[in-house]
Amino acid sequence: MITVNPAVVRIAAERIMNKGLNPKTNEVYVIDNITNPDYRQSVDDYILANTEGV
Q: Which end of the chain is flanked by fewer CB atoms within 10 Å, N or C?
């Protein structure tokens, strides 16, 4: 297990939540763009914790 950088997690999650662009592809950033399982889980947790009504 790696140590995830909370700043990277926040930036990725906020881009996903705000339908921002993935800087690598210039397409809308989606959770499937995250291939590292530790970061993907952390981003998913961040989104769930910071979405109203969830």
A: N
